[in-house]
Amino acid sequence: LTTFYTQSMEKPITLTRYVDPKKTAAALYTLPVEDAPIKRTTLNTYKTKKLTVDKQATIEGQLWYRLRDGSTFIGWTKAANLTATNPFDPIEYDKAVTAYSRVKTAPGNAVWTKPYKTEGANLINQLSVYSGKKMRILREAKTPITTWYQFSVDGKTIGWVDTRALTTFYTQSMEKPITLTRYVDPKKTAAALYTLPVEDPPIKRTTLDTYKTKKLTVDKQATIEGQLWYRLRDGSIFIGWTKAANLITSNT
Question: What compartments host this protein (predicted)?
Fold first, then answer.
């Protein structure tokens, strides 16, 4: 026999590599040999990942790399299937924001696990799935392509979308300071109080019935989609936002 691979041929090394976008169909193997029974998966699984090379071996004139995804061994592949050039867009900033949006342009837009073309970005769904939904905006990130929003629907975090595909109907900049005294309209005690001036069940706090006997202070107002909202306090305690139409100026 001619033995073309033994473990003694493996040499330790530390490198960072990425999947060559043209080689996503190439395979990963348990050992540095193209043998169907030891095929693990294809590089497509890791096309959005930064990978670590921890061993190399030259087998029959071909250089192979052993790869890890973080601390997890994922297999061997030929070095030619990888690139040292980072193919991912950088994230210029990523910050928490508070806003609400709706889908404006669904065709050609999708939702991603991270901003599109950044490391770890995988497709979740087409944006059209969320048409008509109130999308609570949680974070904003900037890449060279555009600005991205991370959003939740019905209290569940979904993913990231291009801000150009959305219409944003509430931002905190719409809130204006004001000082007024108001009381609950006896006919509106079933109306809700929300954490923000948007009727969205996950941010409902309670109903106005809790405060029907109280003198309340309005400390902010916001006009959202043509509706005037007031932010209320019971003494010094924030109790929530409700539509101005649910309140009256006198308790008599």
Answer: Cell membrane
SS3 80: helix
Secondary structure (3-state) at 104: coil
Tokens representing 214? 């109280």
Pick the CATH number of 93-171 from 3.50.50.60, 1.10.3720.10, 1.10.760.10, 2.30.30.170: 2.30.30.170
User: Whose CA is closest to 169, among 115, 128, 232, 229?
Assistant: 229
Which token pair is 145?
A: 């392509």
* Domain 175-248 in the same topology as domain 93-171: yes
For the segment 95-113, the average pLDDT, to the nearest whole number, is: 97
CB–CB of 118/88 below 8 Å?
A: yes
Domain 175-248 carries which CATH code? 2.30.30.170
The Cα–Cα gap between 120 and 112 comes to: 9
- For the beta sheet containing 216-224, the strands, ordered from the edge strand earlier in sequence to the opposite edge, are 204-207, 192-194, 237-243, 227-234, 216-224, 176-184, 247-248
- Does the pTM exceed 0.85? no
Q: Does domain 7-83 bear CATH number 1.25.40.10?
A: no
Mean pLDDT of 85-93: 93
> Using alpha carbons only, how large is the chain's radius of gyration in Å?
28
Task: Work out the pLDDT band at 251, boundaries 50, 70, 90.
Answer: confident
**Domain edges within the chain:** 7-83, 93-171, 175-248
